Structures
1.
Amino acid sequence: MSTRSDLLTSAEILLRTKGYAAFSYADLAEDIGIKKASIHHHFPTKEGMAIAIVESYLFRFRNQLDAINDENTCVVDRLNAFALMFSNSSENGMLPLCGALAAELLALPESLRALTKDFFEIHLTWLQGNLAHGQAMGEFKADLDVTKVSRFMLNTLEGASFVSWAMNDDYQKSSGFDLILAGLLVPQSKH
């Protein structure tokens, strides 16, 4: 891997574990084993580095969402795969990137605030689309407000990440996402 790539990987981990305000180029220099001047060569500003991290992450994230849709015809399976992304990042002791950024929103430069909002909108748009598709396919109750339910789902997943991170416990067993899904399903008729 290149130094730039190593820097982005290390900085993403620091963003998701320590936060934007708490990590420095000195942390990166120590982690990667290079001088701070070398970091400045690749990323003259911390803001520029963070933007590169978020843009790279968003590219991968959009691809993951597309893959989830392509690989799963059942919307419940899609939503479970979406929730699994939160669980997987929790296993590595990290917060979701968008949640970590949102926790420090007022300390972020305006460019990162805007990217953070865009990031959440991508989540919500994907959830709304899949919930509406689930309704159209008869998987979910027809009277669901997909805007409110998508927000509730994202609130649950993001919030569970923070609680699990603070409690150092098993995210997947404590998120409650399965309870939300169960409440959305159309009851199966009894024959």
Note: The chain is about 75% helix and 0% strand.
2.
Amino acid sequence: MKTAKRMSRWKKILIWISVVVVALVAGVFVYLKSVTYSPSGNAEAAMLSDDQVHVTTIKQGYRFEPQGKEAVEPNIIFYPGGLVEPASYAPLARAMAEQGHRVYIAKMPLNLAIFGQNKADIFIAEHPDEAFVIGGHSLGGAFASRYAAEQPEKLEGIFYLASYADDGGSLKDTSLSALQITGTDDGVLNKEEWEKTQTNLPEDTTFVSIDGGNHGQFGSYGMQKGDHAPEITEDEQLRSVVQALDDWFNSFK
């Protein structure tokens, strides 16, 4: 009898523990959803296919390809910034697809690249004999760098948008090419860490500073908390990024 009562008590305890755990997990999901940045109307429009760019939703993200012609190399893999929905980078992906490149934007668990560092493997597997570069914005750039540090043989280079290579993503001993782009009105990027970690970059690194650009306008999701007001428009910042990428790709030849 005592054993039965003891078992019943433990069942009640386990049920309450399960309820508390479920409530905590649900609370975390609700909180993360509330602080996650969503794509702007401009970004949502860039997600639509047209006669220039074909947009496909794939299991691990989105693929942007030029319509009616072969894609030019390198293919581009992009890791979104932390707590930013991937579609927020559709204007950049579309612009590069219009330039002829195949572009992949990765979907990250909970919109945090820390949980999806190796997503690039899935995209590279689609065209294993072609050249790829990887890049990312903010937190996404840091984990793109960690991927590149572990598998440099799969890539031609890496680009950072308001981001840097931390010690876990050091590329100083690789032969990769790197491009680091920042905005002069960025209020989110840790400038001290950015400067300190330049020693982790490969010898072949190009630095580009966009006058008047801020942190959030590397994507298209509105004003980010802690950021500074930009002195240029989102379209102007996008054009500067596209030009920098084009110039960087030309340096590969």
Note: The longest helix spans residues 2-35.
3.
Amino acid sequence: MRRLVILLTALNLAACAHSTGGAAAPAGSSASAAAPKPVATPEARQAAMEADGLARKGDHVAALALYRRAWEGGVRNRNTAYNAACSASLSKEGEEALTWLGRAVDEGFNNVAHLRKDPDLENIRGLPGYAAVEQRVVEEDAKQLQAADPALRDELLARMEEDQKVRQALFGSSFQDEAAKKKLEEVDAANTAWLKEVIAKKGWPGNALVGPRASFAAWLLVQHADKDVAFQEKVLPMLEQAVARGEGSPANLAYLTDRVLVNTGKPQRYGTQMEEVEGKMVPKTLEDPANVDARRAAVGLGTMAEYQASFEQMRQQQQKAAEQKQ
């Protein structure tokens, strides 16, 4: 049996063990580039993945130990650091939580709205030092919103929020809610039609025009414009040019490249598009499978095995949720 899986693409935020395997942050985030990062060992990557799984189950003490191991082994990104901050906070390790949160900002975390509402961090908001870390996020968040066209920026952000809202609703129903399916189709159709008009008039909404976060939102809407593959194909070279200018994410370009290839009946290049085959998550047809990890590494993506494992965890969550509802 083959079943299409909807990819809930991660936004430019970390959400305590919910953001592994997603798309990259908007270009222009403040990830530190002062020194080259260590190359993550396979053991460290496995530890990070296991830590996320434990955190989802609520075992934050055990998760935190694995996050420490992962970081020491070279897994250094904003999601790992933010998720570790959440686990440390929930484990009543306040000072360590602040350290992890600072690391997350160093690696590009910049969503102050999410930071302020995340209940997992409630234990550390009153600690000395928290305000200083939050202020760093405020400053980085402001950079994400600088735009020549603030009205267009705000509309893109609102549409991205709706895009994710309808997908989360469908995911929450284990893809069984027919009304949620219909709503998703309506939202995607409306977003596609609107964005086509915007691009026809103004070109690609890049960082200078709408800011990095809203430019990311534009990419997300294109990624979900599967009913209009010709539009996705038209946008692809625009995104390639944006990446070449330093205004786009190579990882997000990889996602759209694969989306266009799959939607036009061709083998994908980076293995970002997954499906369920006889109860197992696998990538859709790949070109040159033996070298897929090298191609993924070149654009900042983890290994194919790690990506498959993250989708397998999602599949199991869906299955468990469906069984509980029966």
Note: Confidence is low (pLDDT under 50) at residues 1-15, 17-22, 29-33.
